[in-house]
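Example 9 (inverse folding). The structure is encoded as follows.
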């Protein structure tokens, strides 16, 4: 499945290790939020990963003290009708100031990629869209009415000079 970041397909050097599976000694890994906290508390043995995967019900505020150390946060979209990942991305970028890679994983549809980008995602792992479709989605609109986590202002602010 393609991984798109920075306008191009890139190699996925990260491995998500499900709960209960053995953590590898080397390589870049991500784990669930619950497993991350179990490893931090010493309740589970293994190397501490540099990445965390948030499920739809996970609270990104719990990660705030650890954000400077995390290189990757994956936000899972289990189905297209579940939009909680958009809110998680906004909170991580705008409220908590996360600057690392924020990756959308799971049921990532072409129609949602532009809005994911505006919410703060900078990488997209999708089985449902080709690389060219992802790039088309990112360039589909030149203006937006809502403010974005990724910087570009809203169209009405540009119009009024605010």
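The amino acid assigned to each position is listed next.
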């Amino acid at each position: 499945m393609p991984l798109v970041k920075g306008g191009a397909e890139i190699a996925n050097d990260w491995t998500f290790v499900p709960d209960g599976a053995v953590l590898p000694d080397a390589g870049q890994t991500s784990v669930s939020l619950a497993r991350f906290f179990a490893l931090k508390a010493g309740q589970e043995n293994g190397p501490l990963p540099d990445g965390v995967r948030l499920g739809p019900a996970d609270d990104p505020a719990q990660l705030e003290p650890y954000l400077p150390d995390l290189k990757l946060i994956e936000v899972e979209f289990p189905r297209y009708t579940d939009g909680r990942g958009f809110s998680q991305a906004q909170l991580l970028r705008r409220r908590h100031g996360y600057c690392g890679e924020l990756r959308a994983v799971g049921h990532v549809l072409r129609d949602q990629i532009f809005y994911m980008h505006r919410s703060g995602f900078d990488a997209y792992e999708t089985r449902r869209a080709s690389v060219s479709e992802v790039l088309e989605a990112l360039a589909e609109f030149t203006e937006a009415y809502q403010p974005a986590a990724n910087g570009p202002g809203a169209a009405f602010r540009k119009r009024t000079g605010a």
